[in-house]
Amino acid sequence: MRKMRPISISKSFLGVAAGALLIFFALFIVNGFNKSNSTQVDVSQKQNVDNQVLPAIYNVSSMPQQAVDFTYAAEKSVDAVVHIKTRIISRSKPSYDFFDQFREYLHQYPPGQNSFVAFGSGVIISSDGYIVTNNHVIDGADKISVTFNDEREIEGEVIGVDPSTDLAVIKVKENGLPFLTFGNSDNVKIGEWVLAVGNPFNLNSTVTAGIVSAKARNINILGGQSSIESFIQTDAVVNKGNSGGALVNTKAELIGINAAIASHTGVYEGYSFAIPVNIVRKVVNDIMEYGETQRGYLGIQIQDINAEFAEANGLESVDGIYVAGVAENSGAYDAGILEGDVILSINGTSTNSLSSLLGLIAQYNPGTIVKVEIIRDNRKITYDVTLKNKNGTTLIVKSGDSFYNEFLGAKLQRVTVEELRELEITNGLKIIKIDNGILSKSGINEGFIITEINGDMVNSQDNLLTALNKSQRNIIRLKGIYPNGVRVSYEFML
Fold first, then answer.
1. Within a domain: residue 270?
2. Residues with a known catalytic role
3. Do residue 190 and residue 274 come from a single domain?
4. Structural domain includes residue 396
5. Which of 228, 209, 232, 212 lies closest to 220 in space, CA to CA?
6. Stretches in the chain below the pLDDT threshold 50
7. In this predicted structure, what is the pLDDT of residue 225?
8. Element (H, E) at 334
């Protein structure tokens, strides 16, 4: 039997280590190959699982929308927005000089008069020269100059104004002008892109972009109980000089007339406001057809509803507007609306604030029937309400209409917008013919404008009769103004 030679420990260890290394290397290659194949499968499976939760980033349907293109709206708008310059003469003292009538030709102003210039914007709304702007842009103007985007300058004339909405219509003698078409401000959505086009700081044809931030805003800048504020709020940059300019959508449709900014400094701070075009359309149409705005009223007093008010009055929701009172002989009274009702909508459009209700009703004339949805005792009821004017009738009144009053023995006519502005009065009836009556006996002449009777402002045949019926102790107190600015008060014994 052959003896085996002994093997040293070091060789034995190295041999074992080498063999183990060979085996490990072989296993590494095989496993690496299998692992590689396994990894590809796992990644694929992982992607399939992830696809069920979040679309892959290369999926076309998840790509962001293309950027909004403002170029079409800008190009179409800049030529339809004009620069308005007004010259206002401030008369510091009443004075008369024979040569005053000639000073205009000598480019001089009468003593006691200071002239200053103001600027704003306007929007062309017809090819034959009708332009809409803010009333405060042209208020008190003695001369109005309109400059187009091509630098032509033409004198404009006032057609009519509506201080309650801060709107005015002027006209230039020109044809073939570019103009903007009306959109529908009721369809404007919060977050929608808009452009403000105007002349801020006397810089012609400036375009800024923003979004609609809110609707039906009331910022209490117009004053007066008859004022209508239901502004579109945007963050498009608007500054002094933008007043009367256009707010357009990306289709270049006019959706508002820029009117104001909210600012502590007098310059833009992020909040600008525009009059909705549906109100603009109504006012413009009325001025062009009747010479003044025809405004319909529900005849109610209303209260906004918040959580505290709802709890105090037993209301289950803060939706709608609370009816705090109903005027007799009003459309709401005749239809059956009661104090304590909550108005939910007008003609199907929801309303939750005073400003939104005023904005909706301002679109309709007296005599129009609107559907008013209310809630009463947890029941929804819809009424057909016929809107009436402020005199309680459904009549359309034109500024040029005249009528005869037998008691006064005079034919009277509503004062024109131009006369109101020139005499700085807000209302009046002008005497155009006097027959036998108390006026002729008192020495009142034709041309005198009656502004007040028995403490009531007069502006129509209806409120004239109402004021005359308020006579006490057989005395009629009458106030008015002559065309030369002389104010007179009279008292008549019956």
1. yes
2. 136, 166, 243
3. yes
4. no
5. 228
6. 1-30, 32-52, 54, 56-63, 92-109
7. 55
8. helix 331-335
The strand pair at 487-493 and 475-481 is best described as antiparallel
Q: Are 366 and 428 within one domain?
A: no
- The C-alpha atoms of residue 225 and residue 136 are separated, in whole angstroms, by 18
Distance between CA atoms of residues 104 and 344, nearest Å: 58
Q: Which residues contact 122 (CB under 8 A, 6 or more apart)?
A: 81, 82, 83, 84, 131, 132, 133, 137, 146, 170, 244, 245
Tokens read off for 292: 């003044």
Cα–Cα dist 335/338, whole Å: 9
- What is the domain count for the chain? 4
Q: What is Dmax (Cα atoms) for the chain? A: 168
DSSP labels, 256-301: EEEEEE--SSSS-SS-EEEEEHHHHHHHHHHHHHHSS----B--EE
- Asked if residue 187 lies in contact with residue 253, where contact means CB atoms within 8 angstroms, the answer is no
Sequence-distant (6+) residues with CB within 8 A of 297 are 330, 331, 361, 366, 387, 388, 389, 390
402 backbone dihedrals φ, ψ, rounded to 5°: -125, 160
CA 250 to chain centre: 18
Let me know if residue 395 belongs to a domain: no
For the chain, percent helix, then strand, then coil, each to nearest 5? 25, 35, 45
**395 in Cβ contact with 414 (< 8 Å):** no
Q: What are 209-238's pLDDT values in tens digits?
A: 999 999 998 877 776 556 788 899 999 999
Tokens 């707010």 belong to residue: 247
Which tokens in the block code for residue 335?
């239809």
Q: Are 305 and 374 in contact (CB under 8 A)?
A: no
Which residues are CB-neighbours of 435 under 8 A, at least 6 positions away? Answer: 409, 410
286 and 191 part of one domain: yes
Give the domain range for residue 275: 185-290
pLDDT of residue 12: 36
Amino acid at 410: A
R_g of the chain computed on alpha carbons? 37
The per-residue pLDDT for range 304-338, each reduced to its tens digit, is 999 999 999 889 899 999 999 999 989 999 999 99
Backbone angles phi, psi at 437, to 5 degrees: 170, -175
CB atoms within 10 A of CB 269: 11
- Alpha carbon 116 to its chain centroid, in Å, reads 28
Bridge partner residues of 381 (DSSP): 374
Burial class (CB in 10 A: 0-12, 13-18, 19+), 290: middle
* Continuous H helices in 378-455: 417-423, 438-441
**Tokens found for residue 165:** 């909405």
Query: Which tokens is 238 given?
Result: 């608007």
DSSP character string of 349-383: EE--SHHHHHHHHTTS-TT-EEEEEEEETTEEEEE
Same domain, 207 and 147: no
